[in-house]
Amino acid sequence: MKVAVVTGANKGIGFEIVKALCQRYNGNVYLTARNAIKGNAAACKLKKLGLNPIFRQLDVEDEESIKRFRDYIAKREGGINLLFNNAGVTFDECTQLFSKEAEKVVNVNFFGTLHVSEILAPLLRYGARIINTSSYFGHLSNIPSASLRDRLASRNLTVDGLCQLMNEYLSDVRQNKHITNGWGDSPYNVSKVAVAALTIVLQRQFDNDPEKRQISVNSVHPGYSKTDLTGNTGTYTAEEGARPALFAALDAEGLRGQFVWENLAIIDWYSPNPPSF
């Protein structure tokens, strides 16, 4: 039996990804969430529609939680075909604790995506696909510093090197040097650029591994969607915002280390300017 896993799926775009997979995908669909009560409620909501997701608790900030999920899937399913790294948080611009909030955003959006990908990697089956939720703000051009952009775009960048960059950023935040040093004023932007960079780095790793070179990793920009993350404002519904991720997972062929835009176009992450909204 094929297996799809969606993180951060109790609401918003993640919920809509699960819903669509239950309708379209011939396999078991795992709806995961940090909060078990909310996750179970989301799964029950879909079951009332005649769909059959499977809920499992998964906190992307907690490596032990990820490992428990890995062990459960290994025993019950034996592997994973689709992995949607959708869990994410935004940045509260009104907070008085900028440093703490920035660390939370980077830990969930970047390090959470990294840890889920690495810990579940041994379960990825032949031809598996990883889809990482990035953002319009995940385009490389959203980093003001040319030297930082060069480091993020380097063909020699490794996972360790990318982690070092994110730790440098958090260190700069703690010292209030992040703007002076060229990161810009948005932790959310930095975290989502890092997710897109991680997509490319992981794809390069898989390409160089004879046992995993059939695995693909792509990132997506859902568009400005009406979810809790955006204060329920936006151009798209959450269902419409799920389209790029579903396209990358189920419809597109030959995508490897690419960035899928809101209109399903494949865009150049390295270009000086992102496409317009």
From TrEMBL:
<dbReference type="InterPro" id="IPR036291">
    <property type="entry name" value="NAD(P)-bd_dom_sf"/>
</dbReference>
<keyword id="KW-0521">NADP</keyword>
<keyword id="KW-0560">Oxidoreductase</keyword>
<dbReference type="InterPro" id="IPR002347">
    <property type="entry name" value="SDR_fam"/>
</dbReference>
<dbReference type="GO" id="GO:0004090">
    <property type="term" value="F:carbonyl reductase (NADPH) activity"/>
</dbReference>
<protein>
    <recommendedName>
        <fullName>Carbonyl reductase</fullName>
    </recommendedName>
</protein>
<dbReference type="Pfam" id="PF00106">
    <property type="entry name" value="adh_short"/>
</dbReference>
<comment type="similarity">
    <text>Belongs to the short-chain dehydrogenases/reductases (SDR) family.</text>
</comment>
